[in-house]
Design goal:
The chain is α+β, with helices and mostly antiparallel strands. 32% of the residues lie in helices and 25% in strands. The protein has a seven-stranded mixed sheet with strand order 3-4-5-6-7-8-9, with helices on both faces. Strands 11-10-12-14-13 form a five-stranded mixed sheet, sandwiched between helices. It starts with a helix and ends in an 8-residue tail after the last helix.
């Protein structure tokens, strides 16, 4: 099978798993079973149940492909030639409070690049899917990034770390001083998908996990976005934790306007 056809098949596998598991998530299973580093960072019973169900579904397609998942991270898996990258519920805090902005995100990585992926938001009934060189879709219809070119006109989603809204020199403060409006939805995958579909213009984040960026990064690229590292200013790796994502012209304008967004490690 040619790579493009194989990646299209894998995108359908990811979509089926994300939709099937996402729509079956028990919205009452909000009991906290694991607390993680940082404020209000935890996993619920639903996170673990969804992850187990996704892993089982992916194994029925090809049990030889390892899975890197948020609630059972095995560092060595990240270096595998092929792997699935899974966030069973991206936006757990939202989910636990019945806020509808959460999703299931699944990506397929091969030879160090995301080749297929899907993001499904159960509460809004929206599924974003992409595969390499195949474009991006929302519920089967093609999507593309916005036509916005100037940061001053941009609708931006950015991470809001503790005290970032008031800390001088934070990316949040700098962006807020130059863009039209800012929003935080509490789910990186949804925010990136909204950039891909033109609802938001720009996404800036400084602390992503690989499961936060893998599927969304591909959907955004296939929708015409630039996905750059905020550490190098170059094209971002599939698991880059610090990114800026948006229409290429807008990303260029943002980096010209605020060159301090780029901060080498």
């Amino acid at each position: 099978m040619m790579p493009a056809a194989r990646y299209a098949t894998l995108a359908r596998v990811a979509e089926a798993a994300a939709r099937g598991v996402g729509d079956a998530i028990d919205v009452a299973a909000v009991g906290i079973v694991k607390r993680k580093g940082g404020r209000a960072n935890f996993a619920t019973a639903a996170d673990h149940a969804a992850q187990d169900a996704i892993v089982a579904r992916l194994a029925t397609h090809d049990g030889s492909i390892p899975v890197l998942a948020e609630e059972s991270t095995v560092a060595a898996v990240r270096r595998s030639e092929r792997l699935w990258v899974v966030d069973p519920i991206d936006g757990t805090l939202n989910f636990s409070r019945a806020v509808p902005f959460y999703c299931v995100a699944i990506a397929y990585v091969e030879d160090g690049a995301v080749r297929a992926g899907a993001i499904h938001a159960p509460r809004t009934g929206e599924t974003f899917v992409a595969h390499e060189h195949g474009g991006a879709t929302l519920n089967g219809a093609p999507i593309s990034v916005s036509a916005t070119k100037r940061l001053a006109q941009a609708f931006v989603a950015a991470s809001l770390a503790y005290r970032a809204a008031t800390r001088p020199g934070s990316r949040f403060v700098m962006l807020n001083a130059h863009c039209a409006r800012m929003r935080m939805f509490g789910s990186a995958s949804i925010e990136i998908a909204y950039v891909a579909s033109g609802r938001l213009d720009l996404f800036v984040h400084g602390a992503l996990g690989p499961w936060d960026i893998a599927a969304g990064g591909l959907v955004a690229r296939e929708a015409g976005a630039a996905v750059l590292s905020l550490r190098t200013g170059e094209d971002a790796a599939w698991d880059e934790p610090q990114v800026i994502i948006g229409p290429p012209a807008l990303v260029r304008d943002a980096l010209r306007t605020i060159p301090e967004l780029i901060r080498p490690s």
